[in-house]
Amino acid sequence: MISANWAYLGIAILCEVVATASLKQVEGLKHLVPLVLVVAGYTAAFYFLSLTLKEIPVGVAYAIWSAAGTVLIALIGWFWFGQRLSTTTLLGLGLTVAGVVLVNLGSEAH
């Protein structure tokens, strides 16, 4: 069973991804709805990230949060915004995931 702290981390990641994906539509503060999503998303992301730190070491939580966000935003950029993912980009994303796995394996949480 997943502990609440890991669920909070998942929620933090999703909130951060929604906020970051909404940034493109804000267009210099011209559009209110995406701006509200950005502010609410980042606020919720940091709130839920802070809740994870009761159980998950800060280095591990932040590594997972930032790497998952990076990979998801790259995929959203490709899928929704038509941005190209080169072989080099895909390799970098893979290395990012591998780095998080290593951070997690080397943490005191295990």
Q: What sort of overall outline do the alpha carbons produce when their principal axes are compared?
A: flat
Task: Report on the biggest sheet.
Answer: none
What gap, in angstroms, lies between the N and C termini? Answer: 17 Å
Supply Rg.
15 Å
Total helix count? 4
Mean pLDDT: 91
User: What is the element string, with H for helices and E for strands?
Assistant: HHHH
Describe this structure as you would to a colleague:
The structure is a single chain. With 110 residues, this protein is mostly helical. 78% of the residues lie in helices and 0% in strands. The protein has one domain (4-106). It contains 4 helices and no strands. Helix 1 crosses helix 3 (58-79). The model has no long low-confidence stretch (mean pLDDT 91).
Helix-strand layout with pairing:
Blueprint: H1 4-26, H2 32-52, H3 58-79, H4 87-106
What is shown here, in short?
The chain has four helices and no strands. The chain has 110 residues and is an all-alpha fold. Helix 1 runs antiparallel to helix 2, helix 1 crosses helix 3 and helix 3 runs antiparallel to helix 4.
Give a quick set of tags describing it.
single chain, 110 residues, mainly alpha, 4 helices
